[in-house]
Design a protein that fits this description.
The complex is a heterodimer of chains A (259) and B (485). In chain A, 7% of the residues lie in helices and 55% in strands. A twelve-stranded antiparallel β-barrel of chain A has the order 1-2-3-4-5-6-7-8-9-10-11-12. Chain A is globular. Chain B is an alpha+beta fold and 485 residues long. In chain B, the strands form three sheets. In chain B, strands 4-3-5-6-7 form a five-stranded antiparallel β-sheet, with helices on both faces. A three-stranded antiparallel β-sheet of chain B has the order 9-8-10. Chain B has a two-stranded antiparallel ribbon with strand order 1-2. In chain B, a hairpin with a 3-residue loop joins strand 1 and strand 2. Chain B is globular. The relative contact order of chain B is 0.10. The chains are: A mainly beta (259), B alpha+beta (485). Chains A and B meet through strand 4 of A and helix 4 and helix 6 of B.
Chain lengths: 259, 485
Amino acid sequence: MIRARMLAIAASGLATALAAVTTASDHGNLDKARPLRVEDAYSIAFNSREFQSGLEFRGGRSARSTIAFRNELQFGYARNADVSIGWVSNLVDSRGRATAGQLDLSGFWTFRQESVRGPALGLRVDLDVPLTTAEGSSSLGGRVRAIASRHVGRYDQLHLNLDAIREAGTRRSGSGSNPDRWAATVGFSTPVGLPYRFETTAIAEVGIERAWRGGPTLGLVGAGFRRQFAPRAVWDLGAQWVPGSRQTWRLVTGVSLSF
Amino acid sequence: MILALLLAAATADGPPELPAWMRSSAPDAVEFRPVRYQDAIRSVPAFARDMYATSVGHAIAYEAMERGQWSTMEDRTYRTIRAVLSAPPRFAVDERALSPRFSRRQSSVERVFEWAHALHFRTIDILAAPGLSPSERRRAMDAAWREYQAQPFALTGLPMSMAYLDGFPWSGNFRRRYPKVNALFWAYHWLQTANYDMLFETPPATHRPQYEVLGAQYRDAELDRVDRDFMPMMAEQSPRFALAYPQIANAFDNLHMLHDQVNDLYATPGMAPAARDREIQHAIIRVLASSHAGETPGEATNLDLHDHRHPPSTPGMGFMKGSEDDVMFMSGMGWMDMSVCAHCSVPFEPDPAWGATVTANGWTMRVRCIMCARDMASETPGRAVIRAATEQPGQTLVLISDDEGNWKSNLPGVRFVESGGEHPECHAWSKAFTTAAAAEAWRQSAGEDVPILDLTAWGQLNRGKPETYRKINRPNPYRDSGDAR
């Protein structure tokens, strides 16, 4: 019953997103989880509003497959800064249930753009609030992410993301039992077809993640793209491989709409 | 003593104090607040795509300049841009993605350009949006201007002396050394200026057919036009819009002049990058709104940077080289008096009897009446667009001709009277009406026994050049040879 309701919400969310397509997401501006872990150092523009919606599938031989539905509203509240509120609901969690998931509150600040002196620098702070009372799911989580972006070729960019993470509850049950970890991700993005075509950015990433108190180091490899398909709408698709994790693969797809 | 001299030398021609935003290294991406008519430009798809392509053209050229690719500017870079212009993008393009090195080095000017380009798109959306009343459109334009001016990198809406801004030792370097790519820049600026009268107070249903004429002119003539003496000005290309919104018209002229100044500085041989960048900062500061706070249009505290005089009849344009009051030199047209009808040289009547405009062969001129518009269009080969007042203040007549001079109207029942009096009163006896009934009502109230003409009959008339026409013969101020055109 709950799952049916969640599926209905997911469907209506995506429908709303697609209906709003009339109203520019910038496919070159990499946002968290759209579709990979890596993001660039740039906030969305002052005054811009963006709605992001997508599905995340995870699975692996030694873990049950899960499906999460992620929606997020972003608002560029000042020059070089945005805030967002997101909801990640579990359509199918690791126990096969539908759960409300968590709220994500986030702030992002760009301190400098790339210049002849150095890379662009940004900072993201996330606060994750669990919405379920299931065992282990009640503690707040969060993340602080430092980001640097710079061009390495004519149009190509490298992005370095350094994260300090405290997971909210055990939503991501495959990520290990110790909630406090750090992660480092290096991403590569390149606009496809410039200077003649302007609609697609390809993205790749490699990363590592490890608990502060030790334990195994998880590696991550991902690839995906963001493609503009309407004046203010971007479709993204990404796949990640996390070989040391119980859920070894992730598939993410969604849309980002400016309105 | 020596130290003092060194300090004096170092600061004598150093940059003025930079505004805080120019000292900041933040990207400062800004958008206009969302509105329901966002992207209304897409109601004319070919126009929208051509406008998106102008961003690509700017960015490719600037990246080539920053990379020092001068030897290939007029061939490889030019060809690349032309290829994009012939297959323009479907959506708006992020200029910084196309010109990353230029953006890294010239972040301040990039911010000025981006925000002013956003004003272009916002104002176009307002004018193109269907379903807005004239008062709503006016309020939206005023709000857009206030929102634009709220950012520190906004350009001034005061008229600036173009003679001063284009009179530096390095001025004109780019257009002389790279005429083909300069022609592209000026073509983009032609498109970004000519479209405003196409959209201004004209029915949305006419925008697409009007753009068939303007778009063909842009692609087939303006992009290749290397004989222009000066960049296109808003009041030249969209005189009615510039009259209605002089601040916005001035801001766009100042934007386009800043583009020319950046191009000229990059194209100056032997100028060290640091000196060039310093000059670009000076150029930005010269045209910022914050640099002219408290100053007044029409006044000049000196005759260079703070010369805000304008032709008395044209508040949306600063003084041009050689300008005297309302008389100015227009590329391709020669010397024109902006205060009189371009066809009969009789002074304009005050609004609301605004008369008409004629767009043909890349120019747009104001004329006193619909007859002057028709006869002026007939003097010019190729297609033309006439926009004219009717008896209904909110109803603009739009006539578009084919290559043979046959007219099509946006008003199926349009009628004309043309009794053929003296030109100084032509606005009183040459009129357009939305319907035959309206024409008949005017005839009865005026007590005039004149025929009411349908479009076909009216279109076959031609009264030639009026005796009142006065051509101004003076040498071209932009050419040493004194060529009158």
